[in-house]
Every structure is written in C-alpha cells, then in structure tokens.
From TrEMBL:
Pfam families: LCM. Keywords: Methyltransferase, Transferase. One of its GO terms (molecular function) is methyltransferase activity. This is O-Methyltransferase involved in polyketide biosynthesis. It comes from Desulforamulus ruminis (strain ATCC 23193 / DSM 2154 / NCIMB 8452 / DL). GO terms for biological process: methylation. The keyword Disulfide bond does not apply.
Length: 266
C-alpha cells in the first residue's frame, strides 16, 4: 500500500530519508540501520528529497547532538524517563538504551500506525498515539523518582508561538525538575518554508522561531536555559559552501537551527 501522509505528519519522512542516506556512507555521522530498512519498506517517493543535501546534513548533525546530550543525561540518571514528542520514525531508544530507562514515543495516530509496523512495545518502551497538544498524554507517563527528559526535534517550528508557550507551560507543570532538549528555528527562516530544500515538497510551513534559548525562558519563569548548540559548529566539511558563510557571525546566528537544553525549576 502506498503511504499516504499529509501536512506536518509527512515531514517525519524527511529525517527517515536523511538517516537512510547516511547509513550508506562509509563515514556516517550517525549510522542508523533501522532507517535504511524502514525507508526500503515504505512505499513513498523518497526521490523528491534527492537534492535536499543541506537538510540531510542538518538532520544528521541534529541526530548526533541529541544522541550525545540524551546519553549524558542517561549517564546522570540511569533509571530516567525519556519522552520523545513528535517521534515520527526516530530510533534513538535503540542506540541509547542502557537496559534500565523507560522510554515513551509520542506522535499522532497516523504516524504511530506506521511506527507500529516496525517496533513493538515492551515494559520499558511505550508508544502513545496522541497529539502533543492533547494534554491528557502526561497522564500516560509512569513517574519514577529519577529524572525526566523530554526531546522535541523537527516538530515545534510547525506551530504558533502561543501553542508552543501553552505546551511548555504544561510540561513545566506536569514534569517539575524535568529537562528538555528542543530544536529551535531562526525567526528569519519562519514563513520561508517554500524555500526549504525538503519542506517545500510538502504541505507544511514554519510558523515559529526564536533567535536563541534565552527567548524561550520568557515563556515561563520556571524555565532555565542550560546549554545551546548551533548546527554550523559541527561537521563543517559536510556543510560545503554554507560552512564558509557560517564563518560570518551574523549568518551563523540567523540562518541555522539550534538545539537548546532547558531545565524546569521549582
């Protein structure tokens, strides 16, 4: 059956394609064999992304940054709860599992239907088929005395600032002393979806962006910025000509995504 997705859910196929392409390289940033198997099993025209080279690099840098940050968190909290919101077909659990963490994948029912074709739940690995804005989903998370980490990649830029603020306020309330790894888009790239090398192929658009993590702190007095990473600082050769432009501070600040690490304080 040919895969039919539209709007924001379809964008989950961009990182799948990017990781599958990377898995075939001799020098992968992150090697994700699952992605290659899934792409080959899904009936979808992935050839539309063949020219999306910068997105492909960006996805892989993002994957590496989030893997390393999440792994560091797990080392500090080996019995932690990890919640991957807007998970799509991500496979980070299988790279980072220490045999003790509890991991929750959260995404829309149509996305989770595809995911369940490839993965099965266990006592420590659960899938929740709900919108991230359906605020009943925190009730599905089994709390522990260890830390909670929320991961949000490739999702929040598709929603409005008010929606993001409402979500963060809910997360702060539901997971006091939790931490969050979140991808942010530069505000200069908002409303430029039609120029994006991969998203322009879909019926989706960027709606929200912030210059840096300090702006996210303003959403709630209990949010603190802990760290921030700019994609252009990593694997500079792979960025090609963009790597040269990134030596210009203003360009580096304003024309690429970042990962921010937030703490929720009481």
């Amino acid at each position: 059956m040919r895969q039919k997705l539209g709007g924001v859910p379809e964008t989950m196929l961009i990182p799948l394609w990017a990781k599958a392409v990377e898995a075939q390289r001799d020098d992968p940033i992150v090697k994700d064999e699952y992605a290659l198997k899934m792409m080959r099993a899904i009936d979808y025209d992935f050839s539309k992304f063949e020219r999306a080279r910068m997105s492909q690099v960006g996805v892989m840098v993002r994957t590496e940054l989030l893997d390393k940050a999440a792994q560091a968190f797990i080392q500090r909290h080996p019995d932690a709860v990890i919640i991957n919101i807007g998970c799509g077909l991500d496979t980070r659990f299988f790279r980072l599992d220490n045999g003790r963490i509890r991991w929750y994948e959260l995404d829309l029912p149509e996305a989770m239907e595809i995911r369940k074709r490839f993965f099965e739940e266990t006592d420590r690995y659960k899938m929740i088929a709900k919108s991230v804005f359906d605020f009943t989903w925190p009730d599905d998370i089994e709390r522990t005395n260890e830390g909670v980490l929320i991961i949000a990649e490739g999702i929040l830029m598709y929603f409005t600032e008010q929606e993001i603020q409402n979500l963060l306020n809910k997360l702060v309330e539901a997971f006091p002393r939790g931490e969050m790894l979140m991808e942010i888009l530069s505000p200069l790239l908002v409303n430029r979806s039609k120029h994006h090398d991969a998203v322009k192929k879909m019926n989706a658009q960027f709606l929200w962006g912030v210059k840096d993590g300090r702006q996210v702190e303003k959403f709630n007095p209990r949010i603190r910025l802990y760290d921030e990473w700019n994609y252009f600082d990593y694997h500079k050769r792979r960025w090609r000509w963009l790597g040269w432009l990134a030596t210009i501070p203003a360009f580096k600040r304003n024309f690429n995504n970042k990962i921010i690490h937030l703490h929720f304080v009481k």
